[in-house]
Amino acid sequence: MSDVRYSLRAWTSADEAVCAQWRNQAGQPPAAPAPEEQALVLCDADGRPQACARLRPHLGLDIPRYSFHIGRAVHAAAELGLYHCQDTLLLGNDHTGEAELVDLACAPDCPQPQQALSALLEALLKPWLADPANRGRQLVVELAGWRRADGRSPFWDGLGRLFYPADPTPQRARWGEAWPAHLAALMPRQTLYLSFLAEPARQALGRAHEGAAPALQALATQGFAYSRHVRIDDGGPIWVLQASTRLG
Amino acid sequence: MSDVRYSLRAWTSADEAVCAQWRNQAGQPPAAPAPEEQALVLCDADGRPQACARLRPHLGLDIPRYSFHIGRAVHAAAELGLYHCQDTLLLGNDHTGEAELVDLACAPDCPQPQQALSALLEALLKPWLADPANRGRQLVVELAGWRRADGRSPFWDGLGRLFYPADPTPQRARWGEAWPAHLAALMPRQTLYLSFLAEPARQALGRAHEGAAPALQALATQGFAYSRHVRIDDGGPIWVLQASTRLG
Amino acid sequence: MSPAHDLLLRPVAPEDLPALERIAAATADGISSLPEDRERLRERIERSCQAFASEDAASGEETYLFVLEERGRVIGSSGIAASAGFHDRFYSYRNEFVVHASAALGVSQRLHTLHLCHDLTGVTLLTSFYIEPAYEAGLAPQLLSRARLLFIALFAERFNSRIAAEHPGLVDAQGHSPFWDAVGRRFFNMDYAQAEKVVGGRSKAFIADLMPHSPVYVPLLPEAAQFAIGQLHPVGELPFGILQDEGFDADTYIDIFDGGPTVEGRLELLRSVRQARRLALRPGALGLGQEHWHLVCTERRRDFRASLARLPAGVQELSPEHRVFERLGPPPGASVMVSPLDAVQEELR
Amino acid sequence: MSPAHDLLLRPVAPEDLPALERIAAATADGISSLPEDRERLRERIERSCQAFASEDAASGEETYLFVLEERGRVIGSSGIAASAGFHDRFYSYRNEFVVHASAALGVSQRLHTLHLCHDLTGVTLLTSFYIEPAYEAGLAPQLLSRARLLFIALFAERFNSRIAAEHPGLVDAQGHSPFWDAVGRRFFNMDYAQAEKVVGGRSKAFIADLMPHSPVYVPLLPEAAQFAIGQLHPVGELPFGILQDEGFDADTYIDIFDGGPTVEGRLELLRSVRQARRLALRPGALGLGQEHWHLVCTERRRDFRASLARLPAGVQELSPEHRVFERLGPPPGASVMVSPLDAVQEELR
């Protein structure tokens, strides 16, 4: 899968300026790695950065990380011939402590984004998978949720907005990664039935933003799959790589 | 992986008597397939049945199927330096409608059980995976939960027994596959914190019975992984094969 | 002579069948608990007669039905079911409010949720209230509704000490319940009338098994459904107002199907019961002072009778010659129960 | 002359500091809400004086502290916090019971769960009850506890119409709370005393943020913890019994930390308030009839005084010469409030 035209190297402080206009799989510009994190940059034959990715050993240990788990609930009365299966959402911190893949991004003018991202991922995952003692059981990646052409998120409009009526943009900018944790304090804590959400919000649930398409394809190639969890603000899908699946 | 010494054929009514003493991955004797189900038998060079497995296209549509989803909840107060991450259990019907692998079993005297089961699984999965339109997104398999030498389930003793104080054995025998659905009516409906369970019950959670070891290994070979769901009576693990993972 | 003197409340009798049929026909579907079906009405009357007559300890199955007559003509009905959800659970939604706050976001919000509960299982239910429209304005509805409470207080061992009453919820111009459409319908895929049909004679508990046990988050409901929570159908205003005045709480429970208010209160705290007094009967007894309307009832179960009389506020005894006995009949015991109808609230300051 | 005539309840004054220090030292840790710290006690007294003196509408922040004296010697204290959880939420566990049934298995079980709630946020709290052991048996505790309720009724605009009071829960021989060990400790990994230290002066609401919001399933708790739910520490029996007699409900709420009962009631339904009457003062007024002990209090806020007197049951007016004014001082207005102490329950049958 990897391509001879590319070369890999560790992230350097100079990359921050280069990547400032890039957008990662979650729709944000990539940031510099923390000391315990591992970040790789993939460069083209001329040494220009084409893609980057970062591996965080454990998520949610400083700021609690929230997601909705998508479950199912059956209500049935056999005697009446009534049977209903409904999808449900439950707020939780299910991925706490797992490893996380962040800032998976490529240059806007990258000629073969999916190929570049796949090559990068493969290089990043190889040592992770080879170290069962330290790697944990899952590698988690959050993807930006679907938005309309005007930039609005139907999932937010159908759920988050009802519990936090103000415009979330300034708060998201102010709190960064902590924003969903603050939002979670206002959200329903018990099981939500999806059928109570407006149709556009239901349609957007677990659907990734178009800009994340190359990242999604690259992740699928590497064995990542949809975890039936979504982000709490925009309903973007959370994918995971089960370490045991790859090892099986 | 498949071995030339084995041959495969469809289940016949004569197999029922042959398999009566076998135990499947869930600890029960295999049963005859329903019309919509696909069942294969693997025979040795002499034509003697060595292993069997059955594929059910959709689970939980007649009798609701219950499981506990294992989630996580973080309670943190940064100002106090307090942070606690706890595992949780939530009763649900999350796998409703998915395909199910049942009656994965091999003969008690099968010389290479794991190899036989792997060969059988591969044959059963190939057409399933090749038919994205009809196959659904997951293949689910329930495994018998861990028991002590005296046959008691610590998970049952630490949870189920507190909500259904009688001996479950006769009811399990009487109701068969419907038993967990009746039990579910008595169980807690909201999130349970694992820390409220006795230590032996916690240890048994998601741990398979020793008899299921060859099945587990064969499932892992084929890409199945632990789904973070368990059976509600004995805490046995539920493994799934993500269709997309195999196709990725 | 005021027509209020002509009113008499008594247990229903088999001869009342035609009158009950008239009442059942006059009440909108789902509003009254009287069925529009002669056989079922006859059964209801029979069960009531048995309940009044039974000497046994209460089984909880009893339903008591009263009729109000004016000079012998039946003009209304009211009833009591000894135990809500007998043989099964009685479900309601309980209103709950929790505060969700985020200091970081500077937001603190009061979140309204509805919790499916069977808190009211086993309580005594007031049912079957109906009064002819011409009598709505006078004292007749007061007698019809409140005399039941004195009956319950007199025979408390047959009833629960918690009393509740269901009231019809809002429906729109097309006869649809916005609350059902937003909540129940999602779990039935049919309208309420259909659901009632499918469920047939089964208990509401059965339907409730099909509804989610996690709370309903009110902000997720359409506005019309949010508005309908705890809202009364106009047809229920009269009986609802009387029970509110008795001190029933109307803010806690709503009907799980149409969202109408289910009121609830402890018997001993209800106004008519709190203010009830036993008056000794003494020939020639004279009450002095300004007279107010009072409920007056006999203390027999099977021959329970209640009527209205003007009596002085602090009256201690009553003459068997009092005109109230023209309606009540000769007093069967040495005393009667009375409770003022228009008592002022005790005020401390 | 009975010593009960010598008792006087009045607002705390700065001169009471030594007496309060004595009380704080005498009360076990966590039982009384009086701190064993002179500065904090001085502050409490000051805040109380401000609360009694303030002419403003209530902010909810006020705490009122009363002392009971016998011929000038302080023998007890009691207090009121105008609004529970002021500036924050006030958490409790609410007992809930649901029926889980399976027809197929032939089982129907009543399942007990505890729900974290802040239902009692903003209610008025009764606090700081302490009486010297020598006075526990007489009428002194009655005056000490119940006079607060008359004060609240007289100045209702400063308080909530719902009143609650916390009571200490069970501890074992080692001083550990079995309820805390089974519930709170799982989320703190420390014992209650430690947790209180870590949390410092912060509100309980803060601690509650660390506790799960899903119900606690009681069958999962160890037996000792199950038994401790709603159980009273013996030291709380006296004040608890008085409030039970007032009609407070003790079955709904428990403390989230030690499982002790938190009682709750509506002011207007509490016995002392329901039975309170205003007596006009008229020189030479004579009450006739058998005398019973009554609470008697003045109607002024800052100079609130309450004492005990024997008065006839139906007394309508009182002479300013009555001996109760030897303690209360010259009546400051044209009337006083009274409420019988040993009234019999109204009974219907």
Under CATH, the topology of chain C can be stated as: Aminopeptidase
What is the mean pLDDT of chain A?
A: 91
Query: How large is the count of helical segments of chain A?
Result: 9
Regarding CATH, which class of chain C? Alpha Beta
Largest β sheet strand count, sense and barrel closure of chain A: 10 strands, mixed
Quaternary form = heterotetramer
Give the termini distance of chain C in whole angstroms: 38 Å
Please give the count of helices of chain C.
11
CATH structural architecture of chain C: 3-Layer(aba) Sandwich
What is the β-strand count of chain A?
10
Contiguous uncertain segments of 5+ residues of chain A: none
Query: How much of the sequence of chain A is in beta strands?
Result: 25-35%
Unreliable spans of chain C are: 343-349
Estimate the helix proportion of chain C, in percent: 25-40%
Could you tell me how far the N terminus lies from the C terminus of chain A, measured between alpha carbons in angstroms? 21 Å
Count of distinct structural domains of chain C: 1
Explain how this protein is built.
- With 248 residues, chain A is α+β, with helices and mostly antiparallel strands.
- Chain A has one domain (7-247).
- Chain A has 9 helices and 10 strands.
- In chain A, β2 (38-43) and β3 (49-56) form a beta hairpin.
- In chain A, α2 (113-129) crosses α8.
- The longest helix of chain A is centred in the middle third of the chain and has 17 residues, at 113-129.
- Chain A is globular and about 70 Å long.
- In chain C, the strands form 2 sheets. A 10-stranded mixed β-sheet of chain C has the order 1-2-3-6-7-10-9-4-5-8, sandwiched between helices. In chain C, strands 13-12-15-11-14 form a 5-stranded mixed β-sheet.
- The relative contact order of chain C is 0.15.
- With 349 residues, chain C is of the alpha+beta class.
- In chain C, α3 packs across α9.
- Chain C has helices at 17-26, 38-53, 140-154, 178-182, 185-188, 192-199, 204-208, 223-228, 237-246, 271-274, 324-328, and strands at residues 7-11, 63-70, 73-81, 92-102, 107-117, 124-131, 162-166, 216-217, 249-254, 261-266, 277-281, 291-297, 306-312, 317-318, 335-340.
- Chain C has a single domain (3-95, 115-274), classed as 3-Layer(aba) Sandwich (Aminopeptidase).
- In chain C, β6, α3 (140-154) and β7 (162-166) form a beta-alpha-beta unit.
- Helices cover 25% and strands 28% of the residues of chain C.
- Mean pLDDT of chain C is 87; it is low at 343-349.
- Chains A and B meet through β4, β5 and β9 of A and β4, β5 and β9 of B.
